[in-house]
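Quick one, tokens below. Sequence please?
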């Protein structure tokens, strides 16, 4: 028998209460987030939220390479080819259920720890970003790489990247730049650096801690336990912090074509920045244009409103050609040579952008009642 794609267990704590552990269990696919995972996680998190005997939850993943490398797009890809611009009911469920889970994580009433070791990208960042305690390790590699596949940073990315310092969130959206633990903390995507080798120590501390059963006190206690486990950790240099002023200057202003010109012309001796600029130049212009449009729209929106807006945007990408082409080039044929349409930012019209954001199909029932 094959194991479930998410494993659940409960560990006892000192006061006779319990701590839930949810483990993503698809290491062969770098724990890519599938519909089956979402359909296991959502009801279990709801049950643990309502269970007075559960004082908190920790999310981690099987294997040493990745917490979650992104969304599992294989089945979605076939529906993009089949449905094209027509209604895609699988996509409605795929995005509706995923965003419901992400919103549940953001609003979870108890300490919710994410052990973000290894690769944490795309949908994996969506799982981590809303947790009350977001752990990154010496081996964490974090990114929102959607520009490579003709999508945009969804899973709440419009919300959390907008809240990163200066224009660093926009930079991460445009360039798919991979960042380390220090960068992730600087950008507000994570809270604390704990060496991966200290994970056993953290689990032992959870079992021996005197949990109060009240969210505020227990969140404070969890923060203290993680801080103790992270004491003396080697802290890597932050590229985002180092290049903060340059990133802000390059992405300044409200004219996207000006930003595009400056970003393409950016010169640096730093290989990290060079890679970011090259990735941007090869990325989908439609992704950049929609990331920019969402960046401008979301500042005064609630989190629930952002998820509903992203839902329409994601269905819009499903109805246009770049998303399927990006998945083909990166994940299916793997030729890394996508043919974007439109091919340049200058060709993108306001009508093209608006067509990505219009209502199509039905609002996912999972998102209707979110507040």
């Amino acid at each position: 028998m094959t194991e479930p794609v998410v494993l659940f267990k409960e560990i006892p704590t000192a006061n006779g209460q319990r701590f839930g552990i949810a483990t993503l269990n698809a290491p062969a696919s770098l724990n890519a987030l599938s519909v089956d995972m979402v359909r296991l996680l959502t009801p279990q998190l709801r049950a643990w939220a309502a269970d007075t005997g559960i004082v908190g939850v920790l999310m981690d993943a099987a294997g040493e390479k990745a917490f979650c490398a992104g969304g599992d797009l294989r089945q979605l890809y076939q529906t993009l080819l089949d449905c094209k611009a027509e209604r895609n009911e699988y996509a409605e469920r795929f995005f509706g259920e995923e965003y419901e889970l992400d919103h549940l994580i953001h609003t979870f009433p108890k300490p919710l720890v994410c052990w973000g070791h290894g690769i944490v990208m795309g949908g994996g960042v969506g799982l981590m970003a809303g947790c009350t305690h977001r752990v990154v390790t010496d081996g964490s590699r974090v990114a929102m790489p959607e520009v490579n596949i003709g999508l945009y940073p969804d899973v709440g990315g419009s919300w959390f990247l907008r809240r990163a310092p200066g224009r660093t969130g926009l930079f991460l959206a445009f360039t798919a730049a991979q960042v380390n633990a220090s960068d992730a903390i600087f950008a507000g995507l994570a809270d604390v650096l704990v060496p991966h080798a200290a994970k056993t120590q953290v689990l032992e501390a959870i079992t021996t801690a005197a949990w109060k059963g009240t969210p505020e006190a227990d969140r404070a206690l969890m923060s203290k336990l993680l801080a103790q486990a992270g004491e003396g950790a080697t802290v890597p240099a932050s590229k985002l912090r180092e290049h903060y002023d340059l990133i802000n200057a390059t992405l300044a202003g409200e004219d996207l074509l000006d930003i595009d010109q400056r970003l393409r012309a950016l010169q640096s001796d730093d290989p990290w920045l060079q890679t970011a600029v090259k990735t941007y130049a090869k990325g989908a212009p439609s992704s950049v244009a929609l990331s920019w449009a969402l960046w401008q729209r979301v500042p005064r929106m609630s989190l629930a409103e952002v998820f509903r807006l992203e839902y329409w945007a994601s269905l819009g990408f499903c109805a246009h050609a770049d998303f399927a082409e990006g998945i083909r080039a990166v994940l299916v044929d793997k030729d890394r040579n996508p043919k974007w349409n439109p091919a340049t930012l200058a060709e993108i019209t306001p009508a093209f952008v608006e067509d990505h954001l219009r209502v199509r199909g039905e609002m996912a029932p999972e998102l209707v009642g979110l507040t």
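The first strand starts at residue 6 and ends at 12. The two ends are 40 Å apart (CA to CA).
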